[in-house]
Structure formats: structure tokens, C-alpha cells
Amino acid sequence: MRDVRVRFAPSPTGALHIGGVRTALYNYLLARQHKGTMILRIEDTDQTRFVPGAEAYILKSLEWAGIKIDEGVGVGGPYAPYRQSERKDIYKQYAQQLITKGNAYYAFDSEQDLETMREQLKKEGNDNQQYGSANRLLMRNSLTLSEGEVDELLKSGEEYVIRFKVPKDQEVKVTDLIRGEVIVNSSQLDDKVLMKSDGMPTYHLANVVDDYLMKISHVIRGDEWLPSAPLHVLLYTCLGWKNDMPQFAHLPLLLKPDGNGKLSKRAADQMGFPIFPLTWTDPESKAVAKGFMESGYLPEALINFLAFLGWNPGTTQEIFSMNELIQSFSVERIGKAGAKLDIHKAQWFNQQYLRAKSDEALTPYLIESLEKENIPCSKEKAIKICSIMKERVTFPQDFWEHGKFFFIAPQTFDETVASKKWNNEVVKVLSAYKDALGRLTEFDAAIAKATIEMVASDLMIQSGKIMQAFRLALTGGASGPDLMITQEILGKDEVIKRITFALNTIPIKI
RNA sequence: GGUCUGUUCGUCUAACGGUUAGGACACCAGAUUUUCAUUCUGGUAAUAGGGGUUCGAUUCCCCUACGGACUACCA
User: Fold this and answer.
1) Is A390 helix (H, G, I), strand (E, B) or coil?
2) Which nucleotide comes closest to A190 if you measure CA to C1'?
3) Residues of A97-131 as b/e, b for ≥16 C-beta within 10 angstroms?
4) What nucleotides of chain B have any atom within 7 angstroms of a protein Cβ?
């Protein structure tokens, strides 16, 4: 088997979509598994859609995701340059070669001409309105014009494109690692533009030429390329590279969570989850789209989640580190059907990864939030908080979001809980508890527990009955981690202060 | 419209042609807990429809239905 060389080849037209990350991931996994090479090529042949900053964004996103590039834009390599806009001359040469061999031709048709042609075909009830074998001889190109006329047009600076002369009525076979054999009759294919009038190649030419020159062994790309794969096979054949043609694997698409259709930014927005790995600010509209990273997703969790969208190891194991994915991955086990993205599952993965971390490793998340709020906190306290919050958080920011009460005393109290649980018994117990605390010299969770139970039993009240109200007094809410440990972290004085405030503030419902 | 492609619980998916169609997420219920959460136990829930082939089809073939992609001098 030849050396595995795969490439991820995005075009810098905006933020990298989550589906793109998955494509990059699958490429990366295959490369690593076979000790191969992961290449990043930037396909920037469309100058009109170029978005400044997009390339840097792609680089940063891949880095965040833990997908390392061995060769290509950003790192260099033996087949540089890796930006297609810098390889214009190379493509031109091969386009020229195709013309010489009779596999391509110059076309001088204006946009208007093309439109007229399409309308005409439509009027005739023709299903196929493509520029191809059926009608290429009716158009203005080097197939219909004399050599002299062509030369003159070229010399005069007339705009032209180079089109591929698709052979007529040939069975073109694409062997796909996921789909099996796909056979298309070449008459269905149109004479695709290979070189645009601005001198840039189209995707089809650039892609085939680069994959060949860069010795790409496997092309793993989205499903949307399957229809043009036969064209690419034809191109390899005409260029005499058929034996060096890479193996294809067309990935099923990521779909919207509800209904049908492919996952779009709009759909993700509606469902309230990110679609880009990192936050992206559109340079034109200045619109900001929050990324997975900024939303609190851990890269290893997102990668694990993404890997399982369309692939599975065939076992019941679900948690996979990047290294384990590299070990277990196989193109054969990629599914054929599109996968709907269920953000719940992504959250579950995130939770799993978060929990797997040590208290010490979690603490920086809390500290970071606190620094933003300008709230000081000792490391010991932060570790304690993270330790008891750990089982209840999904995102790193939850330590702060769900644990604010550790730092800020409640000013208001959940009214539903107050009206249901705040009563005379509560007031009696808490008042007595508060007094008892005042007499204590030492304080921790165990002492707190013993004290509240003692106080309650003295008053002939079951401690369980007042616990929710107790929590309300300390945190302002109805839920949270263990109340005794919470008190230990809060400290005796703060507990007394909060109980006093609650007693003075919460009205008793009769 | 045409070409290509796909279809197993709500979602991601497993199942050499022979399984009570399995797992995970979500959901629901019970247990534990001072609450919520966690944890544990249990539960609801699927082979799109119709024809073949076969002793036997989720699995192979055909048709239908419904999705999706493509149909640009965009990638």
C-alpha cells in the first residue's frame, strides 16, 4: 500500500463549519493511523468569495480541535505552495496539455450566450440544459471556430474560459470507499469550466492537479462532491494519471436536528447551539456567531462527539480519546446516511469529559470566571467548590453560573420555594441554629450537620422538613450541592449573616 | 425536471441471511439523598410501504414513497 497522504482543503470563504471539522478529523485519523501525512491546502480560487481572516480562523480552529497539520499552509512542505491562488501557473500548464491532447477547448461564450442557450434548451423541453456533448458544437468555442479565428480572439484579449471536453456516452466508474461503485454515463456530465476567465482554475482542475502532484492517497470529502467525482475520474484519466488516482470516500452530510435538510448556520441558531468551532465575527456585517469553544465545549468532547456522527467502532465504548480514535478508526465503518446533529449528546460528552478531570484541573475554570467578575478567591476554596460542583455541571462556566451564591449573598429569594417552604417551624429552627452557631468555636460540615439536627430535635421538628427553606436562606434558590459542605465553604460568620438576612426578609406565608 | 444517493427506537447507531432486533443520548417511573443534580434499577420506543429470491430476510433484488446532494466562470 502506498503512503497515506490525505488533505483537508477548505476554501477561505468564512468560518469553518462543524461539518468541515469532522471532515478534517476523519482525514486526520486516517493519516495518523497509517503513520501518514495530513495536509492542509487552501482552495482560494474564487477571488469574489475570499474573506479576509478566514484562513487564520481555519488554522486556529484546527489547532484548538487538536487536529495537527503535518504539511501545508502554515507549516510548509515539499509541495509548496499550498495555497491554490499561488499555483496558477501550474494549473494553466495542465489545462494547456488537455487542449493539446484534444480533451479541452477554449470557449468564448458570453454570459448572455449561455443564458440564451439554456433558455432555448428549456423551451425545447430538454431536461439537460448543460454545456456539453449535445450542444457544444452550437457554441462559440475552439471546436466551432477556425484555428485562425481562435488565435486572433486569444491575441485580442477576448475573455475566454477553458472547458473540459467530456467524452460522449462513456460509462464512468467511481470507486468509493463508502458508497461502493458509482457508475455514471458521461453524457450526463457537462463540459465543466477548467480555467476561468480571470486565469484561475476551478475547483475541479485545481483539485485533481494538486491531489496528483501532492501524491494524495485518499480523498475524504463531503457528499456534495459525489456528483462531480466522475468528472474528476475522467480528468485523471485524460491527464494520464489514472493509476495514481487517490481513493475516494464521500462522507454523509450533517443534517439539521429537526426536519430535514443539511445543517446550516440558521438552523443551529434557531436551536440555540453553535455551528462554528470558534467565535466568528463576519468582517462585512460584523455579526458575531458564538463558537463551541466560547460556549464551553471542550475540544476533546467535541471531537469525540463529531467522530461518532457517521462512524462507530462497532463496540459499546463511547468515550474515545484522540489516540483511541486513531487506533479504532476505519473508513469501512463510516455510515452512508446523513446524521442529524443532536446537541444533547454533545452536552453529554462534554459532561463526561469535564467529570473525568481532577478537582485541581477544574479549578482554573472557576478562577477564570471569578477574575472576570473581579472576585477574589483562594485556591483552596476554589478547589473545594469545584469538587462538590463537579457532578452537576455540563460546561466550565457552570461552576460560576451555578455557584454564584458561594461568593454573592442572595438579595432575593425564589418566591415559589419561599411561599411553599418558609413557615414558622423554619423560622424557629433557623433562629435557634443561628444562636447555636454563635456559641461555636469550631465549624465544619460535620459540626453544621450535628448542630442543625440537634437544634431541630430540641424543637421537636424533623430537620428534613426545613432543609429546603434552609437552602433558600443560604443560596436564594432551591437547588445546589450538599448544604453542610456549602456551609463549611461559606464559613460560620457568613452563614449567620445570611440566615439573619433571610429571617428579616422573607415573609411568612400563613 | 434530470443525475446521483440514502432510509433500523424521537436522535446517534449495532446486528457472517437464523437475535426475545442490542447499546448510547433524550424521555418516563422507582430507589437513594436535606433539595436539585449525581448514582442505581426499571420502562416506553424502530427495521418506510409493497412485491420477489430463500426453509428463513433488518440484511440480497425490484418497484413505490419520502429525504438529501448536485445540476455556476462557488467550492
Assistant:
1) helix
2) B71
3) ebbeeebbbbbbbeeeeeeebeeebeeeeeeebbb
4) 1-8, 10-15, 23-26, 34-38, 67-75
Contact criterion met (CB below 8 Å) for A24 and A67: yes
SS3 A312: coil
Note whether ipTM > 0.85 here.
yes
Which residues contact residue A121 at a Cβ distance below 8 angstroms, ignoring those fewer than 6 apart? A128, A129, A135
Cβ of residue A308 lies below 7 Å from strand B: yes
The CB density around residue A449, as the number of other CB atoms within 10 Å, is: 17
Please tell me whether any atom of strand B lies within 7 Å of the Cβ of A202.
Answer: yes
Q: How far is the CA of A182 from the C1' of B7 (A)?
A: 19
Helix (H, G, I), strand (E, B) or coil at A341: coil
Q: Is the CB of A228 under 7 A from strand B?
A: yes
Q: Where are the beta strands (DSSP E) in A232-333?
A: 247-251, 254-255, 280-281, 288-289
C1' of B23 to CA of A316 (Å): 6
CA A348 vs CA A6, A306, A363: distances in Å: 31, 13, 20
* Tens digit of each residue's pLDDT (9 = 90 or more) over A200-254: 999 999 999 999 999 999 999 999 999 999 999 999 999 999 999 999 999 999 9
Q: Look up A35 and say whether it is catalytic.
A: no
Q: From CA A80, how far away is CA A103, in angstroms rounded?
A: 28
Of the candidates A196, A265, A381, A428, the residue annotated as catalytic is: A265
Does at least one atom of strand B sit less than 7 Å from the CB of A223? Answer: yes
Whether the ω angle into residue A507 lies within 30 degrees of 0, i.e. cis, is no
Coil, strand or helix: which one is A349?
Answer: helix
* pLDDT tens digit sequence for A336-385: 999 999 999 999 999 999 999 999 999 999 999 999 999 999 999 999 99
User: CB of A468 under 7 A from strand B?
Assistant: yes
Q: H-type helices in A103-163, by residue range?
A: 111-123, 147-155
Full-model pTM: 0.95
Nucleotide nearest residue A9, measured CA to C1': B75
